[in-house]
Amino acid sequence: xxxxxxxxxxxxxxxxxxxxxxxxxxxxxxxxxxxxxxxxxxxxxxxxxxxxxxxxxxxxxxxxxxxxxxxxxxxxxxxxxxxxxxxxxxxxxxxxxxxxxxxxxxxxxxxxxxxxxxxxxxxxxxxxxxxxxxxxxxxxxxxxxxxxxxxxxxxxxxxxxxxxxxxxxxxxxxxxxxxxxxxxxxxxxxxxxxxxxxxxxxxxxxxxxxxxxxxxxxxxxxxxxxxxxxxxxxxxxxxxxxxxxxxxxxxxxxxxxxxxxxxxxxxxxxxxxxxxxxxxxxxxxxxxxxxxxxxxxxxxxxxxxxxxxxxxxxxxxxxxxxxxxxxxxxxxxxxxxxxxxxxxxxxxxxxxxxxxxxxxxxxxxxxxxxxxxxxxxxxxxxxxxxxxxxxxxxxxxxxxxxxxxxxxxxxxxxxxxxxxxxxxxxxxxxxxxxxxx
Length: 437
Ligand code: UD1
Known about the structure:
It is a single chain. With 437 residues, this protein is of the alpha/beta class. The protein has 14 helices and 14 strands. The chain has a seven-stranded parallel beta sheet with strand order 3-2-1-4-5-6-11, with helices on both faces. A three-stranded mixed beta sheet has the order 12-9-14. It has a two-stranded parallel sheet with strand order 7-10. Helix 8 runs parallel beside helix 9 (246-264). The chain is globular, with a radius of gyration of 21 Å.
């Protein structure tokens, strides 16, 4: 077992740094805002008073109804008088999601982006106008009573469409979630992951640069630490070493790209948020994690066993050097994680923020697979059958965050405990057994 590291030593040399107490409202462009962490973060951003523009290609999240319905001809999806036809956020008269503010102001001078693509190309379909919000964001509206300014079904690889969004909206800062994240899939399809995650991020950064928007909060992961050399793992831990899969590499590469950018150009401000294991759901049970196909991650799998969608949980190994032999992770409630993004924005707009800074977002508490099964059994009052199987390739025994830096500099800490994570995840799963469908 790794010796515990003195996480609190960070306080000693960081005592002089203050967190900001001020809150300013900004226009925040959120990529991947229809997804699990993205949609919960949009809730917190709206409640904090920010304007939110969402860009998501919906490959991994439920798409707006208009995208599910058969598409008319690729040229037919926009109003004749709309000057931003293929990227408009759509608000038809008969729109049943009237809170979509995705607006196409009549006097809009933004030129059409239609002419820059092959007619009928798949890219055109992914960025065509939408008639409704994705279900996750429609429910965000119900939860908050607030409207997102716009939603665009646009891929980050679609540079012209992305550029148009920056012309249309005066964006102050970007929170960048959009990425593929299935570890196993990334091993099988490395190019898809590198193109989507790295090229997508590069395109976004170039478009931002051209638009003069040089503030970004990046959705990174504890996976950048590889196999931890000490625990709890703080932000000074080496990154990019011992990363076992292309997904993890893409997170590390994107971090490095943004750090280099902030070094080269002092106007860039970058916050890298390294998530540990996000779980749970909004306490309303209206939004939550909605994995496509069998879940790769522990909590959604347990939740699907509890609700009867899956028969039995496979526990990947009980021979690790941990208290009960099963893997230990630092699970964090997704609403705490969402709050971390709002705190990061406040920090970024404070006077003392410069360059790039990475923060761990976790709880500092390790929970084993069997402890999680136990907690979920109590929360759901359902049996969770499980069997012990072999270790999963690429897994580490224990990963736990030191969160002292985020607490000190962002004034943020996770407040929701394991019971609440399980109770909220269960509320979401039991009220929405088939997700957003
Ligand atoms: C995984 C990814 C990580 C990614 C994170 C996103 C791997 C190796 N790592 O982290 O890169 O950032 O998801 O949330 O996939 N477990 C079971 N049975 C299951 C599923 C998981 O026993 O069906 C165990 C795992 O062995 C591990 C723990 O549960 O000990 C947590 O697994 P998971 O939820 O997949 O998260 P990570 O592996 O920590």
